[in-house]
Each structure stands twice: as C-alpha cells, then as structure tokens.
Known about the structure:
The complex is a heterodimer of chains A (197) and B (198).
Chain A: H1 2-11, H2 24-32, H3 37-58, H4 61-77, H5 88-103, H6 124-145, H7 149-160, H8 165-172, H9 176-196
Helix pairs in contact in A: 2-3, 3-4, 3-5, 3-7, 4-5, 5-8, 6-9, 7-9, 8-9
Chain B: H1 6-14, H2 21-29, H3 31-49, H4 57-72, H5 85-111, H6 116-129, H7 141-150, H8 155-161, H9 169-175, H10 179-195
Helix pairs in contact in B: 1-3, 2-3, 6-10
Amino acid sequence: MTVTRDRTEAAGPEPLPLPEVADDRTLVDACLGGRREAFDVIVERHQRQVYHLCYRFAGNHEDASDLAQDAFIRAYRGLHSFKGQAAFSTWLYRIAVNVCLNRVGTRAQKWTTLDVADQPDLRQERADARLLRGERAAAVRAAIVRLPKKQRAALILRIYHELPHDQIAEIVGTSVGAVKANFFHALANLKKLLNAK
Amino acid sequence: MKHLNRIEFVDLVESPAALPVDRLRHVERCERCRNQADALRTVHSLARADDTPEPSPLFWDHFSARVAEQLRSQPAPAAALRWNPVPFAPWAAAGTLLVLLIGIAVLRTTLHAPAPHNRTAVSTASALSGDDPLDDPDNDEAWAVVRAAAADLGWEDAHEAGITAHPDDVENAALQLNAAERRELAHLLDEDLKRNGA
C-alpha cells in the first residue's frame, strides 16, 4: 500500500493534454519542461507563415519546405534561448530569415508557379489574363530573388507578411530607419529589374 | 526646398498622411519627387498583387509530420539557467554580510585568545581573590615544582640558558591582551610596585 502511494507520488499526476489555444509562451515552457508534443502545436500554428517566408526567399516549393523545416529544427534546438522579451513569432521569423539569408544566395532561382494558370481554359480572354498575371508574378518573384539580402528581407516581410517596420527591425536586428531605407532601395531596384526585362 | 529622403518616400507610398503638410506640398510642386513617388507606388502595387502560392492542403500535415520526425532524433531542449539579477542581489548581499560577520568573529577570537602567560596572570589574580582555589599558585603542585626549580636560578644563569625573553616579547604579549586582561595586568604591576616599596 505504501509502495503504491510512493510510486504514485514519484510519477506525479498525468500531464494534461495541451490545449490548442495555449499561448506560445506556455507551449515553449511545456516543451522545455520535457513535453515535446508542445512543439508540434507550435509547428502547426506557425508553419504556414514560415513556409511562405521561405517560399519568397527560395522561389520554389521544394527549397521552401526544406528551409522551413530547417528553421523549425533550429528553433527547437535553441528554444531555451527564447526569453519572451519579443513575441514568439518575431523570434521564429528571425530564425527563419537567418536560415534563408544563409542558405539562399542571389543566384537565379527556378521559379515554379503553384496556381492553376497552366490549366486549359476554354474562355480565351480569361486564359490570356491569367497567363499575363502569371508571367508578371514570375517576373516579380525572379526580380525579388535578385535583390540584395537585406533589401529582400525588408521587402518580403513588409509586403508579403505585412509586418510593421519596427517589428521588421527587431527581426533583422537593425533600426527602423535602416529598414525603411532598405525597403526604399528594394522598391527602386525592383523597378529597375522589372524595366530591364 | 529639399527633396524627399528615402524614409519620407516610404512614408509617402505607404501612408501619405504620415508626412507633414509642407512635405506633401513639396511633392505636388516638385516633378522629380512626384515621378519618383509614382514609380515606387507602381512597383509597390505590382509586388503586392502577387499572392504567395498556396501548396496543396495535404502539404501541411505532411510537413508537420516531417518536422516531428526530424525532431525525434534531436535531444530534448533543456531549459537554460536564467540569470536573474534582481532576486539574486539580496541573497548575495546577505551572504557577503554573513561571511564578513563570521570572518570578524573568527579574527577576534584568534587575536584575543589568552596566551599561556596571560592565563597565569589571570589565574594568579583569581587565586588572590580566592575565586578559584584550583588556580591558586600557592596550592598548585605543578607550579610549586617550577618555583622550587627556579628558586636558585639567577638572572644571569637564566640569560645564559637562553630562557630570557626577547626585547619585544613583553610588548607583543601586552598588545594581545584584551581590556580586562590589561586592567588586571596593571593591577598586578601596581601591587608589585607597592610591595617592593617603589
């Protein structure tokens, strides 16, 4: 009887399942406390944003999914360094941006479009419009990849993730003024690259 | 008037209301700034129009399973020891104070430990006052043996035997006495001087 009670006390109560609505800080603490499954919730919650970020840097689905996976693994390894001073998403974006900047160069990327532009459409006018839009989108993506890294990061985070300048500054580790300056140059260079085509 | 700088151009493209009225008026009058702003707006709109392509809905399950599989081979992330100076400071101060107090106590005990000759002096005083018969040198057998052996010992003989005190020994011994012991020594010297008719 005594042995049974002692064993029960040593094992502790059965951990409660992690609620999907638990905030990121709670999930991080649970993960650091030995509950790995907490990180699965984090991945499910942020995978879309991280993947999109990586897609804009890499330009194709295969590389984007590899980069996103790498970003999450790095985040998991460095989870103890998350101090909670910034939002978890900011911290995660920082890791993803660093992974992308380190792994993706300024080389020309192979661009793949995942939309349905290449599917046959009997309505010729609409098909033409789609084709034009698809070509324009491909040109913009190709031009973005050719931007210098910091300009690219500023433009992607601002336009495609709609982050405020101060949060971008926190992610890339610079000032708001520098972010705005990089954003300005990114737009100016994008214009030159698109006009040159 | 000065043309718009890079930051002002960004503000103009994103939210013109953020610019001061005089800067907006400048843009209206300055063709160069106006053209630059129009070009930036066009590129900005073009970039915004390009939505990020969505992968297959099945991809997300596949992706999270892939990440989970990779993480299984990773060691569990350990919580780092977090340095928090605010709660630590009072403990550090208390610890330092405790060490200082112990140090002072040990130092005082060591410095004021009674030396053998002092103990004799105090014991003699106690014996004279009759407080402790065991410390009475007149009734102490061991002290009687020493006294008998030294009875015929002259100063010169003691000096030749090397059992005399060095010049600084008395002064050093006196410096190690505490206040009570110094009072007792003064009392003994006073009595001795009176007894010898000084």
